[in-house]
Amino acid sequence: MKKTFIAALVAASTLTVPALAEYPDKPIRIVVGYSAGGGTDVMARAVAQFFEKALGNGASVVVKNMPGAGGQIGFTEVASADPDGYTLGTFNLPAALALTYDRKADYDASSFTYLANFVKDPNTVVVSKESGFETLEQLVEAAKAQPGSVTMGLSALGGNDHFSANMIADATGVEFTLVPFKGASMARTALMGQHVAAGTMTLSQTVSFQDELRVLAVLSDERSTFRPDVPTAKELGYDVQMSSLRGIVAPAGLPAEIEEKLRKALIDVNAMEDFQSMMAKQGNPISFIAGEEFEATAKQQDGVARSIWEKTPWK
Amino acid sequence: MYSDLIQSLPNVIAWANIAALVIGVLAGIVVGAMPGLSATMAISVLVPFTFGLEPLVALGLMAGIYNGAMYGGAIPAVLLRIPGTPAAVATTFDGYPMAQQGKGGYALQVAVVSSAFGGMASAIALMLLAPPLSRVTLLFGPAEVFWVAVFGLCSIIFLLGGNVTKGLISACFGVFVSVVGSDPIFGNDRYTFGQLELLDGIHIVILLVGLYALPPVIDLLESPLKTENSAGDRLGTEPIWRTFPQMLRFWKTWIRSALIGIWIGILPGAGGSMAAFMSYNEARRSSKTPETWGNGEPEGVAASETANNADTAAALIPALTLGIPGTAVAAIMLGGLLIHGLQPGPMLFRNNPDIVFGFMWQFLFGAILLVFLGGSLATNSFAKLLKLPRPLLGSVIIILMLIGVYSIHGRMFDVYLMLGFGAIGYVMDKLRFPLPPVVLGLILGGFAEENLRLALRIGRGNWMVLFQNVTSLILVALTVAVVVGPMVKHRLIDKKKAESKG
Fold it and tell me: Does B318 score more than 70 pLDDT?
């Protein structure tokens, strides 16, 4: 707080000096499109804390929550902010881009400067321990025997849970009945009460429920360090990959030198041991990618969302 | 199952939590004693401010206010024959005659001891019933939750008393508000007029503050209350340790009223005022001297006050275990839990046992504190408090409301929305439309729609999925009973009347 105050004072007293020369000369805000305390907010606060150290020079980074409309209010705020390096935002894939298809949005994949992605939480195919399904193959067989009889609980339509279910159905050639709950925890509760047969929630949602839930497959290219005992879908013969990604973006059109400085600082953040251990403690699986690689991932996710929307629009 | 209960105890005794509870109880007594201000209003104004607090501190404040207000309502009920809260109406029947006979002090002592007893019984009921229930609720799938919501809506319309048509209109308004925003399955916009702020629907706290806080504040400013005739100057107070032994003869009434209060609390829809009326009537019916009732019978005060406090913690049983609040206060408390990222329902007991069980302890301690805080020392001074300048009070509350609502999402849009609901609430109040059905219509309407559609999706469009198991059928039967029961009763009463005339 005191740091912010001093930074503000310094900024006020040196108004005549060109801002670019000593970026950042005022607090940088990270806009989070979700409420405080949620997964994305927790990540943003961890990043903000180490970001200040990485930027040095008494830089100040504040997190601002702008929850609402499934994150859209926050994403729009970032996309339409001045690209001066003082407004950054958290970015959730595929959700942020998926919602540009199912409703009117004032931004698209090209509205952002992609700085770095931190978290990659892979989706799974998961059932209740009491369901009798031991393997993915058994679940697929049951769905084949009676098309539509296997219900699949999702956290919502138009997100990674939904896309996972769609992609699994495509890869296996069977039909599931999709049941979109209001959020991941509702979907999980219904799965535990066996009101739905299976779910596609992310791996981190399942870790503290190992006594009740059986993860049949994880939808990523390699096994997770959190659950090395669970096979990937790829190993089981279905090349399906989907996860929930959380990273940091800025508005498009960011000056190159500022972009460079921010990206370098974020790479430094990722290299800090304290940061890594904090993220591990929060149960956030890290998969760090920066710059062009992040942008390519975003474009690829955008393509997945578009093709699913075109083939099976969900509203 | 109950080991978590014991383990959470040390946490609750932390000084910040105790301090929150003490402040809550005191504030509750003050709010309850102010005619027009209710526990619902106080807690809804408070909720947005608790965001920065530790969850247990925030919940302690709420538990304290709830308990305090239920007793506080008795103070003006006894001294001025003005019930401080709707739940204290039955307290005026015998409390005021006692005050006229110069026994106002004794009446308040009976009220505080009975309130504390009711509150403790209610807290213990919550402690014993909620944990096992939370295990069963995993069995409640979308179909069952749909029926619980329908049952709740029907009971609030038909059991609230008063005009059923007006109750129905109020509930429909609430259900309509629940429709605003993106639909729960596909996310289609409904009544949002392109406003992103409306896409998530209308936050319950915004509606509650508007409906429950603004109309009484306007009332407060409109009609200065005359308090000159207060009987408070001649309370005739004896120390409570001397009067307490005289009260022990009420033990039967205490137990009966506590059970009635707990039962009414668990039922969705009905609230403290209904509990108080029912227990007053039951107590009078089983009294050996029914003719003294209404003329200053202390047992009448005991009956009413035990029951309205016994309703408090019990109302949270369905709220905490199923996530379905039965009363407006329980609904705001759920809002308070959600603000702290605590999702009510079966997972709450598993993921945050320290908080949910700590909350239960706070209800118990709050009830005990009531005796000390509301008892001997404060009663006289609280009577004087009613003379506080009302315009001052009103403006303070309005400022708190504006800041609080703004702070939920940090946007003015919500403040305008709240003021709009305030205007609607004011008109409804004047036209005597009941407010609780609006709140429960918003919450339960949303639940009903979402779960009906989920159930139909699971059943692939087959409506029989709603009647597939015993739990659903029991809930259907209860719903039918709530709707048809009062009609049949009226019919029978009319018939009897006709017969006795003929």
Answer: yes
**Closest Cα of chain A to B433: distance in Å?**
32
Q: Say what the pLDDT of residue A50 is.
A: 94
CB B75 within 8 A of CB B84: yes
Spell out the residues 6+ positions from residue B153 whose beta carbon is closer than 8 angstroms to its own. B171, B175, B437, B440, B441, B444, B445, B448
Give A-chain residues touching B197 at CB under 8 angstroms. 68-69, 73
User: How far, in Å, are B42, B222, B422 from residue B219 at the CA level?
Assistant: 16, 5, 12
Kindly state the average pLDDT of the residues A41-50: 91
**Share above pLDDT 70 across residues of chain A, in percent, rounded to a whole number:** 93
How does pLDDT run across A102-157, given as a tens digit for each residue? 888 899 999 999 999 999 999 999 999 999 899 999 999 999 999 989 999 998 88
- Say how many C-beta atoms besides its own lie within 10 A of residue B340's C-beta: 18
Give the separation between CA B234 and CA B96, rounded to whole angstroms: 13
pTM beyond 0.90, yes or no: no
> What pLDDT digit, counting tens, does each position of A229-262 carry?
999 999 999 999 999 999 999 999 999 999 999 9
Q: What are phi and psi of B479, to 5 degrees?
A: -60, -45
- CA-closest candidate to residue A118, choices A281, A268, A285: A285
Cβ-proximal residues to A297 (8 Å cutoff; 6+ apart), any chain: A93, A117, A245, A289
pLDDT band at B382 (very low <50, low <70, confident <90, very high): low
Model confidence at B108, in pLDDT bands (50, 70, 90)? confident
Nearest chain B alpha carbon to A148: B460
pLDDT of res. A21: 57
Q: Phi, psi (5° rounding) for residue B326?
A: -95, -20
B317 to chain A, closest Cα gap in Å: 19
In this prediction, residue A196 has a pLDDT band, given cuts at 50, 70 and 90, of: very high
Q: Residue A15 has what pLDDT?
A: 45
One DSSP character per residue, chain A reads -HHHHHHHHHHHHTTTS-GGGGS-SS-EEEEESS-TTSHHHHHHHHHHHHHHHHH-TT--EEEEE---GGGHHHHHHHHTS-SSSSEEEEEEETHHHHHHHHS--S--GGGEEEEEEEEEEEBEEEEEGGG---SHHHHHHHHHHSTT-SEEEES-TTSHHHHHHHHHHHHHT---EEEE-SSHHHHHHHHHTTSSSEE--BHHHHGGGTTTEEEEEE-SSS--SS-TTSPBTTTTT-----EEEEEEEEESS--HHHHHHHHHHHHHHHH-HHHHHHHHHTT--EEEEETHHHHHHHHHHHHHHHHHHHHS---
Q: Pick the residue of A29, A182, A309 with the most B CBs within 10 A to test the interface with B by mutation.
A: A182
Token pair 């970032």 in the structure block, residue: A78
Residues B341, A70: C-beta atoms closer than 8 Å: no
- Cβ count near B54 (within 10 Å): 16
- Note the ipTM here: 0.79
Chain-centroid distance of CA A222 in Å reads 18
Q: Please give the domain boundaries of chain A with CATH numbers for all domains.
A: 26-120+243-311 (3.40.190.150), 124-218 (3.40.190.10)
Q: Residue B427, exposed/middle/buried by CB under 10 A (0-12, 13-18, 19+)?
A: exposed
Chain mean pLDDT for chain B: 84
What is the least distance, in Å, from the CA of B167 to any CA of chain A?
29
Q: Is the pLDDT of residue B15 over 70?
A: yes
B458–A177 CB contact, under 8 Å: yes
Q: What is the pLDDT of residue B286?
A: 87
| Residue A86 pLDDT | 94
Kindly list the residues from chain B whose CB atom is less than 8 angstroms away from the CB atom of residue A178. Answer: 457
Whole-angstrom Cα distance, residue B1 to residue A193? 19
The HSE-up count of residue B451 (CA atoms within 13 Å, CB side) is 25
